[in-house]
Fold this sequence. Notes:
alpha/beta, TIM Barrel, eight-stranded parallel β-sheet, two-stranded antiparallel ribbon
Amino acid sequence: MSTPTASFRGIIPPMITPLLYKNQLDVEGLERLVEHMLGGGIHGLFILGTTGEAPSLSYALRYELVERVCRQVAGRIPVLVGVTDTSLTESLRLAEKAQKEGAAAVVSAPPYYYAPSQQELIEYYEDLADHMPLPVFLYNMPSHVKVSFEPDTVKAIAQHPNVIGLKDSSGAMVYFHTLIQTIKKENPSFSLLVGPEELTAEAVLFGADGGVNGGANMFPRLYTDLYEAAVRRDIDAILPLQERVMYISNTIYKVGRYGSSYLKGLKCTCSLLGICSDFMASPYHRFRKEERDKVRAVLESMDIPVVNP
């Protein structure tokens, strides 16, 4: 009898949300972005996450995005929909929309106003999973929601048959290795995905199922090549790809001085590549000329043509 393997694997980018204005999607840019990533060999797509600015978007726009993306993807790859909210009812409503449109799973970080205890997290996710119409991914994002899933908490929640995986954006590799040792060995079908792209190759080499890498919005083939090299355990192939990933991390993501610089760099790059608008949801603003020029210079140093200066 074969050992079950995780059903969600590979590079599953957290998609940016292309906007033309505060509550208006850049529909043409959205369509180009989805096809751009599909053309780069991505294995799934995660919408309405942190990189998608979900907490800043109206519910109407979130529903529209789910509808448009699921219909465009049309089953070519699985679509995961972020349903994180401070209201369990709103999470369930968005999940119902995701199911209706053909999404494969939902992703949920802990409610982010009052920080719940670990026991409250267990009870919350048991309740959520009981009522969810789709399989659930846990989303560990302590920098944004003030609480982390402790390994024993993950192990307890993972007993629920409707909880199928976890995306870890903590950046703490000891924590991630602990999840691999304490959960993956007992339940190989539980998907463990790592958020920070700088850690994807290492994580996959040691047992992760893939990466939820924001850089794949810009350069999807780079990240799918890195993942595939890690699966093959081909260190000679990994090293130059990892070097390129780190160059992006230390340049494009470091323009600007604030917590939103990573996202602004992503959106600015996609704009310079002619994919979509770089408009940011309020209260954030896109890079201005000085920062945009710095991003353009980085792309030129990488021999990547800029089509929308």
